Amino acid sequence: SGNNYEIIIIDDGSPDGTQEVAEQLEKIYGSDKILLRPRARKLGLGTAYIHGMKHATGNFIVIMDADLSHHPKFIPEFIRKQKEGNFDIVSGTRYKGNGGVYGWDLKRKLISRGANFLTQVLLRPGASDLTGSFRLYRKEVLQKLMEKCVSKGYVFQMEMIVRARQLGFTIGEVPISFVDRVYGESKLGGNEIVSFLKGLLTLFATT
User: Fold this and answer.
1) Which residues make Cβ contacts (< 8 Å) with residue 131, sequence separation at least 6?
2) What is the pTM of this model?
3) Which InterPro entries match (predicted)?
4) N or C terminus: fewer CB in 10 A for the chain?
5) 40 and 73 together in one domain
6) Chain segment 47-77, per-residue pLDDT in tens
7) Which domain holds residue 31?
8) Same structural domain for residues 131 and 177?
9) How far apart (Å, rounded) are the C-alpha atoms in residues 162 and 129?
10) Where are the alpha helices (DSSP H) in the chain?
11) Residues 77 and 176 in one domain
């Protein structure tokens, strides 16, 4: 790609063998390119961001799921978009252009669309996909947002964009295809939906 990069893998003691695969990759590509930074147990997405950020040496950070539901082929497009508009954040969107979701049942699609629609109506965030997590951030912008964000779970991604708009940061978008994981289960359940609605109302009241 011609870009200097490092891949930081945060594994929270998952039972799926992520760490063993990452160790093999580290041997192949070298510990300067593959940085394995495991934690003993599941401590949440926000703290994983902070943990990864501490070890990042670049000026920009791409955050993505490691199960290939976020395809690495979109990363060059994120970089191109950032340079094109000098954006603080480039967010992958499933709801614009040729973006889309593959492998979800109707219920999951309705929940995601409904969550996004509600968020657009209440918060007017200036971005089309609030609940996705495939994004490129300017490192110092990510640090500032992490200091401001208080949400956990599903709401966290949404709050990152809402706070970014509140603080005047610029956001570009790249259409992406999201492919649901082949192995393992999605963690979205009734509790997450309730906490999402609570978080949405909190943001509506405070932003």
Assistant:
1) 112, 115, 116, 119, 154, 157, 158
2) 0.85
3) DPM1-like, Glyco_trans_2-like, Nucleotide-diphossugar_trans
4) N
5) no
6) 788 888 888 999 999 999 877 889 999 999 9
7) 1-58
8) yes
9) 11
10) 18-29, 45-55, 75-85, 106-123, 139-148, 155-166, 190-206
11) yes
* Tokens linked to 74: 């979109």
Give the count of beta carbons closer than 10 Å to the beta carbon of residue 177.
16
- List the structure tokens of 193: 């939906």
pLDDT tens column, 90-147: 999 998 988 888 888 888 788 878 887 888 888 887 888 888 889 999 999 999 998 8
Cα 52 to the chain's mean position, in Å?
13
> Do residues 37 and 77 both lie within one domain?
no
What is the C-alpha to C-alpha distance for residues 88 and 1, in angstroms, rounded to an integer?
A: 21
CA-CA distance, 53 to 135, in Å (whole number)?
Answer: 14
H helix count then E strand count, the chain: 7, 8
